[in-house]
Design goal:
By secondary structure, the chain is mostly helical. The protein is built from 9 helices and 2 strands; from the N terminus they run αααααααβααβ. Helices cover 68% and strands 4% of the residues.
Length: 248
């Protein structure tokens, strides 16, 4: 019971990502709202915390040779992975989904007017994500990599001061996008195509589901592993007062 009341959802997923599928099954947000305890999340969903903890323990006690321990990675390696895997994914899939959703609106919008709202939400979300990722890649991530690769005990202060400042902004934007895509999931009946759906309709909904699933993993890696790690690492340095103009 002590674990239920103290350990957060994000902690569970950070320790073993296989638990993410279990939380998703119960509709528990493990990325944007990963800071809730198991008890708090279960109360919100009217789920027995003891039952869920038992299911989690089954997963944790089952060997999984393919599980990736992201917590053991250096922060610079994790940054590279997030950029090359999740940032590039968003860039590539967004352009395809723009076209498919536009086509669905034109062909099926008269019978399924919810497509116009889905399209609007996706265009807004993808646009915000593009700016969000650019801020990470140009401002926050370079400093995290600099700290990870620095051998000395001092490092120049970036223009944003402590990493807590951009991290707070990134987490707020993560929450906004998580809520936006939850709305898309609701409008699509959890990505279930209607009976009269053509193949493009089915493929588009499958791609939207994959996009949201990838976003959950993406946000989890940042919120629950990269950002806390950067905050811990920063405290190990003497931050020099002089600004590091290469990060301006």
């Amino acid at each position: 019971m002590e674990t239920i009341n103290k350990k957060t959802i994000g902690n569970y997923v950070a320790e073993d990502f296989r638990t993410a599928a279990l939380f998703s099954k119960y509709g528990i947000d493990f990325c944007c709202k990963g800071n809730r305890t198991l008890a708090e999340a279960c109360e919100k969903k009217a789920i027995s915390p003891e039952r869920l903890e038992n299911e989690i323990n089954v997963i944790l006690n089952t060997a999984n040779e393919q599980s990736v321990d992201f917590k053991s990675w250096s922060l610079d390696l994790l940054v590279e992975y997030i950029e090359k895997t999740h940032h590039r994914y968003v860039e590539e899939k967004s352009s395809v989904l723009y076209r498919f959703l536009d086509k669905l609106c034109k062909v099926h919008g008269d019978r399924h007017p919810e497509l116009f709202e889905i399209n609007k939400l996706f265009i807004e979300g993808a646009g915000v994500l593009a700016k969000h990722m650019m801020k990470e890649e140009l401002i926050l991530f370079p400093f995290i990599k600099r700290m990870s690769q620095t051998k000395g005990k001092s490092i120049k202060m970036p223009n944003f001061g402590t990493v807590d400042n951009p991290i707070a902004m990134m987490q707020d934007e993560h929450t906004t996008e998580g809520e936006r895509f939850a709305k898309i999931a609701e409008l699509t009946n959890n990505y279930t195509p209607p009976a009269d759906a053509c193949q493009t309709y089915k493929v588009t909904f499958a791609m939207l589901k994959e996009f949201e699933d990838d976003l959950h993993i993406h946000i989890h890696l940042e919120n629950n592993i990269l950002f806390p790690g950067a905050q811990v690492l920063e405290r190990q340095f003497n931050i020099l007062d002089k600004l590091d103009h290469s990060l301006l």
